[in-house]
Amino acid sequence: MGLAKIRDGGIVETASWLIAPPEGLDHFAPRNVAIHGITAKEVDGAPSWARVFPEVLSFAGGDLFVAHNASFDRSVFRKASAAFDLEVPDTVWYDTLPIARRLLTLGSYSLPFVANALGLEDFTHHEAEADAVQAARILLTLAGRSGVDSIAELANPLGIHSVPTRPGSLSRPVGDGSRAAGDFSSLAATDVLAGESVVFTGTLSLHTRAEAHALVEHYGGTWQKSVTKATTILVSGDLDPRTFRPGAEFSRKLQKAMDLAEKGQPLEILTEQDLIDRLDIGQEALEAATREQRAVGRAGWLPLHVVEQARALTGEDLNYSTWLRQALRHPAGHPGAGDQCLRCEGMIGPDVYWMFRERWMCSPECNDGLKRAAKKAWSDQGIDRPSAPSYAASWAR
Ligand SMILES: [Zn+2]
């Protein structure tokens, strides 16, 4: 975790922490180590996020959060907090990525490219504090070039502050069950697919075919069932970038698309992730919008055991997180193959964090939904529970 504090147009203070991941999430994928260079050994003995969290809030002191590609940072912040049942305060986040996109013309808008274009000093990319300092410099430089002295002026009039769009959404639970299937209206609409005719093939990891079609329409495109001379984009769910090369074996749809492209038809073959990138929405936002539809009709929903177990805990001398764990866990133990998320009926993958698995929840979002519904029911039924640790004092330093 790296932070840089801005006051009066300058960086006045920085801070960084090495944090030990919680048990069960302490796998160091070589791919990630290659990016940030942090190994298990380096965080051996480092504090947990639960210990660092109040220090971070204290450093922030109620300020706005700004990051480059902020949806990623915000999602890590939220997921790490969810792993400890920490209560995240309402915070506004701004993203320098869309601001840079709006004000600069570059081939790539990743942090090093933007920094270079603005003539900023070199830095060690993916080192947390250096990234934070560089994001702060980018913000200050873009603000200076625009002649404004507040981020609200930089972002609001142009409508370019992206994630999230209103105060409080850091802790605002997604998935209120209020959207119909195929309703992606919670995602900002653009006409990025206008004029495109899209065909899907293979197994999509994120969506059913009907959802994928609705998504294309939301972004101004049309869809077809099979590849024709009018097709401009083929999204292949089974495309493995490592084997996608001439001479490989392709499905019928994919082969037809390749043939048409070779004959000069402007037809682009994309992976599912390529399409998501093209739409310029974060994977996180898209998953949340999809989940919102799948949890439809579940307002007022709450598994019975959550109330029964909470009632049985009356009089037990437990701390907040232990009480919460015992009240929320599924009485049948961990889910097995084929068991679904109690909230959205989605898959509970083997990689889902153990505490969410214990509750039969597929994701931090569904876990938030469970906790929200449970707290309401406990209050309505007068079930006492230990109070959450308060960070108010450090937050308001
Ligand atoms: Zn779920």
From TrEMBL:
InterPro entries: BRCT_dom, BRCT_dom_sf, Ribonucl_H, RNaseH-like_sf, RNaseH_sf. Residues 377-397 are annotated as: Disordered. The keyword Nuclease applies. It comes from Brachybacterium rhamnosum. Keywords: Exonuclease, Hydrolase, Nuclease. GO terms for molecular function: exonuclease activity. Residues 188-277 form the BRCT domain. Pfam families: BRCT (PF00533), RNase_T (PF00929). The keyword Acetylation does not apply. PROSITE patterns: BRCT. This is Exonuclease domain-containing protein.
